[in-house]
Structures are given as structure tokens and as C-alpha cells.
């Protein structure tokens, strides 16, 4: 059995000050994926080199300070680790850590946000396509895929509190949702919906409007698995009581 957690921490230095290592110690996943580190290697201490003495850590920091960044913490040494998708304009932002294990290949991803400008929306859609090409290549090579992180899109109306009000907002645009339709049409499964089809399950809340207290949120963080891993999904969930970021962690338990 393998327990995985993914969390957009909205700043690794901030969550370290808020008890991140204590939370990690208590939660004790086999694998932890982090997004939006907002730091450079020289801005964090030795505590992230070998957290709690039981995790190996792999980072994709990106070039711009205080922006983006992803990480994978794992108890079991991967067979190999790579960063990026092989496209320079994407990879300079530090958005992907890929770790290959015996039983699956994991991609911890921080997908772009398309809200700031039309150019960034196009960048996001092109990043989606590059990511899709990567995971389809992995599948063609016989690898089972777990792809987790902040996808920055709510797929269905059930996945955000106010779908009508956000129909023209990036993160719920038809073109973004159509890409997620494409993902699922190729057999990739949104693991949470395999086990829980209830409304009101969100992973992101706007902090400025105190949306979390009212649960006016968005579900934009996902664990997707390739079709051959669906029978191995034992559980998937959301940890809304874990604070410290504008996102909360999500979980996946696999029988591998």
C-alpha cells in the first residue's frame, strides 16, 4: 500500500514557520508532492534536505524568485527523477517533478494560472497539451501514471461553489474544462470522484474574502491516475482542516 499527499503550500517558507514538519511527521505519507514553493534553494535551510531523517527530496525550483516551484518527498528511493517537460519556456518556471517507481510513475505538477492575461491563458493551454503528450508517452512505454497537483481548473459545476458567477473566469472556462474532458476521455480517472461524488468538496479558497470560513471554494487540486491504476485505488480524499495555505492537501491511497 502507498499513501500519497499533494499540497499547494503557497510558499514553503511560510508553511515551515506554521508547523509544516510537525504536520508531515504526524501525517507520515509515503510520498508528498508540493506546489508553489515560492523559494530558491538558498532561501530554505537544511530541514528540507532530508526531512525528519526519512524523506528524500527532489525539487524543481524555477528561475524566478518567489514564484512557482515544485517538490517530491519520498521514503522509497525512485528509480529515476527528472524535472520539467522538455520545453524551455515551460521548464524555466519549475512546474514539474517526475519520479519513476517500480509500480508507477509520478508527476507532481503545478499547472499555470490563466487569469492574469490572455497570453497566460494560452500558455496554460499549451502547457496542458505538453503535459498530456508526456503522460501519453509514458503510457505508450508501458508505465502506469499518477499525475497530481494544482491543475488550476475546476472541471464540473459541482467542483466550485459559484459556477454561474465564474463562467467567464479562467479556471472554469469552457476551453479549460474541455481539456479535462479530453484527459478523462483517454481513461484517466479523477480519483476523488471514484470514491466520493458529494458536492461541497473544495481544495482552494480566496483568503481575502474569508471564503474558507464559508466554504466558498474551488476544487482545482487533483490526483489523476491512468486506467491501469484505477483498480488499485483504495481511497482518495481532501484534508480541509489542514491550514497554512489557501489550498488544502489532497490524498490518494493505492494498493501498490
| Fraction of residues in helix | 10-25%
End-to-end distance = 5 Å
Radius of gyration from CA coordinates: 17 Å
- The fraction of residues in strands falls at 25-35%
**CATH hierarchy class name:** Alpha Beta
Describe this structure in words.
The chain is an alpha+beta fold. 24% of the residues lie in helices and 25% in strands. It has helices at residues 12-17, 20-27, 88-91, 118-140, 174-185, 191-195, 211-214; strands spanning 2-8, 31-35, 56-60, 70-74, 80-83, 96-100, 105-110, 145-150, 189-190, 204-205, 217-218, 221-225, 233-238, 250-254. It has a six-stranded mixed sheet. A six-stranded mixed sheet has the order 5-6-7-8-12-9. The longest helix has 23 residues, at 118-140.
Summarize the model shown.
The chain has 256 residues and is an alpha+beta fold. Helix content is 24%, strand content 25%.
Give the topology.
Elements: E1 2-8, H1 12-17, H2 20-27, E2 31-35, E3 56-60, E4 70-74, E5 80-83, H3 88-91, E6 96-100, E7 105-110, H4 118-140, E8 145-150, H5 174-185, E9 189-190, H6 191-195, E10 204-205, H7 211-214, E11 217-218, E12 221-225, E13 233-238, E14 250-254
Parallel strand pairs: 1-2, 7-8
Antiparallel strand pairs: 1-14, 2-4, 3-4, 5-6, 6-7, 8-12, 9-12, 10-11, 13-14
Helix pairs in contact: 4-5
